[in-house]
Amino acid sequence: FSAAIAITEQPVSVSVPVGYSFTLRCRAEGRTSLQYQWFCQHQSVCHPIPGATKQDLPITAQQTQLYTCRINDVYKNAIFSDWVKVEVHQCVARGLPPQLWRGEPVIVLNPTEQRVEVGKPLQLQCAAMGIPAPSYQWYQNGNLLEHQKKKKLWITHAKVSDSGTYLCCASNSHGEHWTNAVDIHIGETLPPAEHLQLCCLVFPLATGKIALLVGNNRYQHHPNLMAPVTDVFELSLLLEQLGFQVVSLLD
User: Fold this and answer.
1) How far apart are CA 33 and CA 25, in angstroms?
2) What is the arithmetic mean of pLDDT over 37-61?
3) Least packed by Cβ within 10 Å: which of 107, 172, 239, 242?
4) How far apart are CA 197 and CA 203, in angstroms?
5) What whole-number distance in Å separates Cα of residue 60 and Cα of residue 41?
6) Nearest to 53 by CA among 79, 77, 72
């Protein structure tokens, strides 16, 4: 019966650059002496790791794999730790000397600007390294999106109201890091003939009222700011209502 063994420290998932060395840890208590055996799983095949019979498992990251540790006592009681994921990024982030890295989140993939037709799927992606592996939270126009807490933001059928500025926060126990902010445009696509007619109507009416908005939120010696993204968005709406043609830039 597994109650004879209690895991006091579970291993934690990590997200690291290829070639990075670190240690997975597992700790347990039992009524007798305990034995440890680590297992790994890659592409649905699970097998014990030869010689991995200690509480700590040193790893040099090569490929993304899952790991678990089995602990048993002399009475054949056995318990498995949580499965943890070691996610390995093949591209090491620029300006990140591994020897100086303490496991704080580092963005390695930013979302990209998109134009999507109404009713079509919208997918945004980001990725971050971190020890422990970062958790994710997406924002639209500065508002937290309650159910978008994964690396991929997925909206099956995009609506006009899904337009706006999106960014994601990756965080762990060492801190947080924000992705670049990107503009997402959701709208009907005009047939080529109508599009040309619209251009002919718009350009002769242009009165030269142009506003350039620049929001800086990535400072070299300061944490990323949220306000510039939302301020630029709000200001651009106001200026457009006043008849300005608005060009918005971030960073």
Assistant:
1) 18
2) 95
3) 242
4) 10
5) 16
6) 72
> Does an H or E element contain 200, and which?
helix 192-205
Cβ distance 87 to 59 under 8 Å?
A: no
Whether residue 206 has pLDDT greater than 50: no
Grade residue 9 by pLDDT with cuts at 50, 70 and 90. very high
- Look at residue 202 and tell me whether its pLDDT is greater than 60: no
CB 135 within 8 A of CB 163: no
φ/ψ (deg, to 5) at 3: -65, -15
pLDDT at 122: 97
Locate 182 and state its tokens: 């990107």
Q: Which two tokens stand for residue 60?
A: 């040099």
pLDDT, residue 42, reads 85
pLDDT at 96: 56
Give the integer Cα–Cα distance in Å for 67 and 196.
57
Paired sense of beta strands 56-60 and 27-30, if any: unpaired
- Give me the numbers of helices (H) and strands (E) for the chain, helices first please: 2, 22
